[in-house]
Amino acid sequence: MATKRRIKKVLIANRGEIALRIIRTVKELGLDAVAVYEKPDSEAYFIRFADDAILIGDGPRKDYLDIDKIIWAARKSGADAIHPGYGFLAENTDFSAECEKAGIVFIGPPPGVIRDLGNKVVARKIMQKAGIPFIPGTNDLSPGDEGIKDAVAFGKEYGYPLMLKASSGGGGRGIRKVESEADLVVQLPLARSEALSAFNNESVYIEKCIEAPRHVEIQILADNHGNVIHLGSRDCSIQRRHQKLLEIAPADLPDDILEAMYDSAIRAAREAGYVNAGTVEFLVDSRTNEFWFMEVNTRLQVEHTVTEELTGVDIVRQQIRIAEGDVLDIPSERAQLMGKAIQVRINAEDPKNNFMPEGGKRVEVYQSPGGPGIRLDGIVYQGYRIPTEYDSLLVKLTVRGYNWDQTLERLKRALHGFLIVGPKTTIPFYLKICDETDFKKGKFDTSYIETHPEILEYPETEREVARLAKLIAEIHAKKINPYAY
């Protein structure tokens, strides 16, 4: 039986919108919130909402990844728990272990679970033991010529294309598509080098490539008392370079397929000894609805908001309660997702220029949408400088409605309701998607961006209201109307 330990102060080992999102729930629970930051984040929005903020270094990025500095900050502030958010140290086995060693509650899975599920080859073996379908693949390939020989043999047996993957990969990194045997021989050493650089581990493996599948994930919660539940599904198929752009809940699949996926996800969590919040991800054949296990994300997901909006469950609150040793008491009917929800990531990027970040630019004018079914999770404000040091996310927009059509209408209304003057953003790109025929019919898979190039053909014209707002902002800033003379 797990022992209970009441948390009083939570340090958030992250930055940006996710740090702010976690701080809000921490304060709702009557707990103290501690932010950590690097010098480039000295004026960051999320710091303003914390009860305490500790500078951990000059950065950029390296101090957010420094386990010793994070533990030091927790001790300095008196925090008795750490929430890792997502990215940075969220799926780092050593971080979870060091928190445990320091007597600090890690709000996430135990170190052994993160280690096992973070290694994609080990995770596949766990799923095999649980009887969960998974894509044909290899174990870690041997170094040198022997690894190339095994890879070539796998290609001969299963055919091309194949996917080369880093065994410790995540977040869409460390993945290469291989089209032929000659391509495989060239790409394998490059993949090892990339894996070593990104994850400090050069191990790679191969999977059969499933052409144009759907990417569907199941949100799970598991406590220390043996209870495991799911909170429905999300479709994350629309991606660029294996990174998600737009997420939808629930996935539009037959009920029997979804039930089989829920059962598989819960069995996967039990077999792995999972505790806390996590996501079991599957690839689904768009034609047959056959599905295969892909991976488990041992952390909070960027797209958790769509699940929260349809279930009313605050997943961060549940993470904290589980970490305290409480028993899950969410009724199963909460997982029966009513309606539809969509999340889009409003980034300061130029989609027409290969989604190039607009780092260094300032948001001269900012106006956000509101009204029924609209949720915003962001860090942007008038005068905000787009960081060159970190990601370009401004705000996550989540909309919900009773059905697909209403949700799509609300998404368009909300996107039109934004006024962001200064950087280019992904807003016109999403508006173009909203009007695309296949998307309106709910027909999309992981090849959607590549097979619908017309969604990048949108006008660059600045709205009249944007020009007016820019002028007003300039008048306020300079205390003079440049057009009055």
What's the gist of this structure?
The chain has 485 residues and is an alpha+beta fold. It has helices spanning 16-28, 67-77, 93-101, 111-118, 120-129, 144-158, 181-199, 255-272, 304-311, 315-323, 404-417, 427-434, 437-440, 448-451, 464-478; strands at residues 9-12, 32-38, 52-57, 81-83, 105-106, 162-166, 175-178, 204-208, 214-222, 228-240, 243-249, 276-284, 291-297, 340-347, 349-350, 356-357, 365-367, 374-378, 393-401, 419-421. The longest helix has 19 residues, at 181-199.
Q: Into which percentage range does the β-strand content fall? A: 15-25%
CATH class categorisation of the largest domain: Alpha Beta
CATH homologous superfamily assignment of the largest domain:
ATP-grasp fold, B domain
Structural class: alpha+beta
Oligomer: single chain
Mean pLDDT: 93
Q: How many runs of DSSP E, i.e. beta strands?
A: 20
Number of helices: 15
The span between the termini is: 78 Å
CATH architecture of the largest domain: 2-Layer Sandwich
Rounded to the nearest angstrom, the radius of gyration is: 23 Å
Note poorly predicted spans.
none
Structurally, the number of domains stands at 3
Q: From the 3D structure, determine the CATH topology of the largest domain.
A: D-amino Acid Aminotransferase, Chain A, domain 1
Helix content: 25-40%
Globally, the shape reads: globular
Strand order of the largest sheet: 13-12-9-10-11-14-19-18
Can you summarize the main beta sheet? Answer: 8 strands, antiparallel
